[in-house]
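Figure 3 (text version): C-alpha cells given as input.
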C-alpha cells in the first residue's frame, strides 16, 4: 500500500501529517525523536534522515516525500547537505515527488517585495545552503531524474513554532510586561502561518503544475512587529505593552555564549528593513488564501494556555 513519507516532526511536519491523514492518506512520519501526532493513520518512526539506507527503507513505495526537517539553526552548513542529498537520492530511486519546505534566506537582502522569481544570490552561510539545496534538486528535476517542488515561507507564526512572535513575546504580553524584539519594530514584515505552510506543501506535492519550481506560501499582508504584538493584545483582550528593540551590542554579547543569537546576525537585515513576501502566484494558481490573521493569532495564543471565559481572557 502506497504512503506519504513526512520527514521531520516539528510544527510543519506534524501539520503536514495531520492534513494528509485527514484526507485519507496513509502517513509515515520519521524523525530522530520518533514523536508526532497520535493517530491510527500515522506511523511514527525514529530515523536519521541523513542515512540514505534508513530513508530508503522508510520510503519504500511512497507517493511523495515531504522534507520538513529542521536541523539546529547554527548547524545548517554541516547538517543540511547530507539530509538534502539523502532525500534527493530517495526521491530518485523511489520515483516519489520531493516536496521541500524552505524559506526566503536564499534571496539575501532585496530592495522591494520578495517574489518567487527572484534569483537566489544570498552571500550568507545559511542562505547559500538553502540556495544550493534548491539548485541541486532543480537540476535533477530538469534532467528527468526526479519530480520536485519547493514551498517558501516567511517567518513562522503558529502553535509550536520557533517564532519571533512566540516565546519571547506572548508570555510577557499575557503577563502585562514589555517585550524586546530583533531589529526595528516598525519595519513591515511578512508572517506565515504554519498550517498554511502544510496546506501549500501538500498541494504542491500532489499537483503537477507545482513541480519544477518554487512557490511562496499564501500569507497575510505584512505587519510590523509592533503592529503584530498590538494585534495579539487585541485578540487576547489585554492591554498593549511597550515594545523596544534589542540593541546591537546586546545581541553581539549574547552571541558570544548563545549560538542561535550569533547566527541571527546573518539575517538581522530581515528586521531592519521592509521584508515583504508576495504570494499571489500560488494564491491564483491553486485557489488558496491565507488563514485569516485573527484566527492565526487566536490559535497561537491558545497554544500558550490562553483561553476565553465568558468573553474574558484568562490563562490556564
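Below: residues designed for each position.
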Amino acid at each position: 500500500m502506497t504512503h506519504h513519507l513526512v520527514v521531520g516532526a516539528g510544527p510543519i511536519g506534524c501539520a503536514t501529517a495531520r492534513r494528509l491523514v485527514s484526507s485519507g492518506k496513509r502517513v509515515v512520519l520519521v524523525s530522530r525523536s520518533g514523536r508526532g501526532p497520535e493517530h491510527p493513520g500515522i506511523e511514527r518512526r525514529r530515523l536519521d534522515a541523513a542515512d540514505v539506507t534508513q530513508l530508503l527503507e522508510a520510503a519504500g513505495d511512497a507517493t511523495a516525500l515531504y522534507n520538513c526537517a529542521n536541523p539546529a539553526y547554527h548547524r545548517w552548513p554541516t547538517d543540511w547537505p547530507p539530509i538534502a542529498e539523502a532525500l534527493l537520492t530517495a526521491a530518485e530511486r523511489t520515483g516519489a515527488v520531493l516536496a521541500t519546505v524552505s524559506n526566503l534566506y536564499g534571496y539575501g537582502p532585496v530592495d522591494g517585495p520578495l517574489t518567487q522569481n527572484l534569483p537566489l544570490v544570498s552571500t550568507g552561510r545559511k542562505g547559500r545552503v538553502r540556495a544550493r539545496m534548491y539548485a541541486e534538486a532543480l537540476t535533477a528535476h530538469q534532467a528527468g531524474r526526479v519530480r520536485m517542488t519547493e514551498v517558501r515561507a516567511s517567518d513562522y507564526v503558529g502553535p509550536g513554532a520557533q517564532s519571533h512572535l512566540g516565546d519571547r513575546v506572548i508570555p510577557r504580553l499575557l503577563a502585562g510586561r514589555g517585550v524586546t524584539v530583533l531589529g526595528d519594530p516598525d519595519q513591515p514584515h511578512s508572517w506565515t502561518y504554519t498550517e498554511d505552510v502544510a496546506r501549500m506543501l501538500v498541494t504542491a506535492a500532489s499537483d503537477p503544475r507545482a513541480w519544477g519550481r518554487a512557490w511562496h506560501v499564501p500569507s497575510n499582508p505584512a505587519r510590523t512587529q509592533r503592529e503584530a504584538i498590538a494585534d495579539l493584545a487585541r485578540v487576547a483582550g489585554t492591554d498593549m505593552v511597550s515594545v523596544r528593540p534589542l540593541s546591537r551590542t546586546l545581541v553581539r554579547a549574547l552571541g558570544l555564549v548563545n549560538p542561535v543569537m550569533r547566527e541571527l546576525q546573518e539575517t538581522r537585515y530581515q528586521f531592519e528593513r521592509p521584508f515583504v513576501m508576495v504570494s499571489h502566484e500560488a494564491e491564483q494558481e491553486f485557489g488558496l488564501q491565507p488563514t485569516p490573521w485573527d484566527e492565526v493569532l487566536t490559535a497561537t495564543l491558545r497554544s500558550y494556555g490562553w483561553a476565553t471565559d465568558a468573553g474574558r481572557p484568562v490563562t490556564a
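Residues 74 and 128 are 14 Å apart (CA to CA).
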